[in-house]
Amino acid sequence: MNKKVLNLSHINKNNLILLSIIIFSILVDKLFHLHSFYIPKWDQGYHLSNLFRTYNIFEEVDLNNFDWWNNLWRVSDTYRGPLTYICSSIFLKIFGKSYENSLLSNHIFSIITILCIFNLSKEIGNEKVGLWGSVIFALNPYIFDQRVDYLIDLSQVCIINLNFYILYKLLKSKTNFLLSLFLGITLGFVFLTKPTGLLFLFLPYSYALYYLGENLTSFKKKLLYLIIITSSFLIVIWPWLSINWLTIFTSILNSWQWGIKYQDGLEANTFEGLIFYPKIITKLIGPYILGSFFVIGSISLFKSLRNHKFKFNNFNGLRRIDLFLISMPINILIICTFMSTKDLRFILPIFPSLCIFSGLFLENLKKNNLNKFYKIFIFTIILSTLILHLNNQKNTHFIFKKNTFNSWPHKEIVEELKRFSPNLKTVIGVLPDTKELNTFNLAAEAELQNSNLHFRQIISNEESYKEDLNRFNWFIIKDGEQGIMSSNSKLELSKLVEESSKFENFKSWELPDGSKAKLFKRKKINESITTIRDDFSPLKLELIFSENGLTLDLKGNVESVSKSNLLLDARSKDKKYEINIALPEIINLSDKNIQIIKRINFDQKLDYETLNFDSLLISKENQEIPISLDKVIFNKEIIESEKNTFEINKVKELEKMGKLLKYGEFDKLFNLVGLINQTDPDQEYLIDSEKIFKYRYKLNNRNPYYLYNIAIAQVLQRKSIEAADTLEKLIKIDKNNSNLYLAKSVVDIYNFNPRQAEINIQKAININNNPNLNSTINTIKIISNIINLRISSLTKI
Fold first, then answer.
1. For residue 354, how many other CB atoms are within 10 A of its CB?
2. DSSP per-residue string spanning 472-483
3. 457: part of which helix (H) or strand (E)?
4. Distance of alpha carbon 591 from alpha carbon 559, whole angstroms
5. CA–CA separation, 729 and 731 (whole Å)
6. Which band of pLDDT confidence, cut at 50, 70 and 90, is reported for residue 763?
7. 601 and 648 in contact (C-beta within 8 Å)?
8. 458-507 pLDDT, tens per residue?
9. How much of the chain exceeds pLDDT 70, in percent?
């Protein structure tokens, strides 16, 4: 009885110490936030944008609505999964939406990791090892930096180590239904945090399969647990993976290419690349701690050798199950070394294992006064390292007032734009890319305020940057430092904006670094909304043509006009001209009568005096709404101040894409897609264009160009089933066009139909007359061979 009471007291004591470690780490974080102002940087702004967007979707939960689920899973369509954002949204829901509250989920990720360290140590037979490991983890400066910042690396550390702990428990138990289920679910969570995190678990799972294969006698049990793990894993990841698998894959490749381009010399086949992570791990644990480990370990080894007590065969007593513990850190080190991009954050999942190994080292020291004082010394180093780190943090500012640094104008920029344009979506081109002022943290602020604003990073090159003057109505520029992604084209565009007679400086802000941020507005915005009293039924339309473009003046009810499409037909005796215009979504004006002015580029030379105009509006519900065409005016005189000021018609741009698809000019096609997408973040022009050309094709199915336009709109929307059907129709019409077979093969791969893709690739090869397409065909063939598991074919390409 006394022994049980003693054991219970011992357990409670360790649990209290563990609780104290957790509470202390949270208090340190809170103290930091009380005396600092959080300004998200590049990646942080990107992740916060996704978080606030996820939260905004959860504000209007509709579990029975497919579109609601689709919007949720499309928030993140890269290798950065949605799980972190979903978890963080829960805390925003409870405590309110703010930058500070977005960091609260980090506490949970940290606590779960600490519990994994403690319980894994408990499983191997020593709770004190877990206490030491928890202290080293909780008070580590690098982990502290993760807790007080918004990134997804800490959540990845947490989920990977949680899954590893459950896998270890399953190996020890050998048969456990619930553990198998939890293992599959948490493995799915690893994927939903970062799909690449699965690579860190390759060796542990390989070891586990081998171990269970030897230790489970029943084949049925082996199969059952494999089915449970696999099915629960697939159920968790499938909703996100099925929608975004192609962009996940391509974003991983792009990330790999980024490392090759910008981290030259750190490849795995270079000495610097091989030693990068071993060097950085010493910094992660701390050189003083590692140095003291080496000294005290050498002393212990020397004493053992002197007393003839050290034997190498002592390691033979290790259980094979315990050797499993080193599989994951070895796996992580190998994968990170072979990665093209090198950064401390990427190897952080290894740290909990290192904490456990450090705890094992400390607890295996002999019980004597020297080692007792040494442990006190180690704890002092751990604590003082954190204190020094806090003191040296640039953003800590303990001796200054917090509001001294609350002067970056992100909030004011968003509020100014919201006041000016409360009823339309507004896209702003951002040219500076500094740590404090960039596209991503401005976008995060816009999502925080749940605004109708979209901040876009300018991606144009020196050949196309001048067109951006016609693509955007708003620009943010900055003098002084421009940031790491600055380029000659951006500098030239900044100069063009400032000097252009078409733009005006709407507002400026003095920045804390001594520079100035400027918000430039087009003098004549290409879209404007005004509320009116009169109710026009049918809708009333005026068209004003000029040498510079087309201005339409449409009056009617919001419900009819919002997100509708205007189809104009200009007819003469022997010719017909089509003008297709997508109208914007109108926000916060339901049941109002409005006048919308829209100015678009129109470069066709028409003999207006001989033309008759027909007009039709297709509503967002695909209803045909009659329009009264009141006036058609042609201004013959060119107004110099309005020259080249009209908005580029995105539907017309999509028609160009259809022709580029037909003629196989894929480089030009994707360059054009990039230019348009930066001005239309929600890519509504694709939805509008598909509707417009489906309607046109219904009226005239002899025009194949409509099908090309529909096909490219569907492909870019990732509507793969519909795109496959449209391409099949085109192939029947244009059988000798190798570009169609190539496009169809890509869609087949996306639809997990690699056999059909293989057939279409071969047809493309047989009829292709364009040598410039050979490299594209070979790339798609490689992907098809991989999916078809035709590894031997890869050597023949």
1. 17
2. -SEEEEESS--B
3. strand 453-457
4. 7
5. 6
6. confident
7. yes
8. 877 777 778 888 888 999 999 888 887 778 888 888 899 999 888 999 99
9. 89
pLDDT band for 247, please (50, 70, 90 cuts): confident
Q: What is the DSSP letter of 125?
A: T
Q: Which helix (H) or strand (E) holds 492?
A: helix 488-499
478-510 residues labelled b (16+ CB within 10 A) or e (exposed): beebbbebebebbeebbebbeebebbeeeeebe
- Does residue 678 sit in helix, strand or coil? coil
Residue 127, token pair as written in the block: 């709770």
In this predicted model, what pLDDT tens digit does every residue of 163-186 receive, in sequence order? 999 999 988 886 678 999 999 999
- CA–CA separation, 717 and 77 (whole Å): 13
**Would the pLDDT of 589 be above 80?**
yes
Do residues 191 and 237 make contact, with C-beta atoms less than 8 angstroms apart?
yes
pLDDT higher than 60, residue 22: yes
Are 98 and 51 within 8 A, CB to CB? no
- Give backbone dihedrals phi and psi of 690, rounded to 5 degrees, phi first: -60, -45
Query: In the sheet that 426-430 helps form, which strands lie side by side, from edge to edge?
Result: 453-457, 426-430, 474-478, 516-522, 503-510
Phi/psi zone of residue 612: left (φ > 0), alpha (ψ -120 to 50 degrees), beta?
beta
CB 747 within 8 A of CB 723: yes
The two three-digit tokens of residue 774, written as one number: 């050979």
Q: What span, in angstroms and rounded, lies between the C-alpha atoms of 217 and 232? A: 24
CA atoms within 13 A on the CB side of 738: 19
Selected residue with higher pLDDT from 48 and 469: 48
If pLDDT is split at 50, 70 and 90, which confidence band does 795 have? very low
DSSP assignment of 40-96: --HHHHHHHHHHHHHHHHHTT--TT-HHHHHHHHTS--SSS-SHHHHHHHHHHHHH-
Where b means 16+ CB within 10 Å and e means fewer, 565-593 reads bbbbbbeeeeeeeebbbbbbbbbebeeeb
- Distance separating alpha carbons of residues 477 and 55, to the nearest angstrom: 30
Question: How far apart, in whole angstroms, are the C-alpha atoms of residue 138 and residue 529?
Answer: 54
Q: Report residue 211 as tokens.
A: 């171990």
Q: Of 93-97, 364-368, 683-687, which gets the smallest average pLDDT? A: 364-368
HSE at residue 797, side-chain half, CA atoms within 13 A, is 21
Contacts of 457 (CB under 8 A, 6+ apart): 430, 433, 438, 439, 440, 485, 678
Q: What pTM, to 2 d.p., does this model score?
A: 0.86
Ranges 50-54, 119-123, 141-145, 369-373: which has the least confidence: 369-373
Does residue 239 have a cis bond before it (omega within 30 degrees)?
A: no
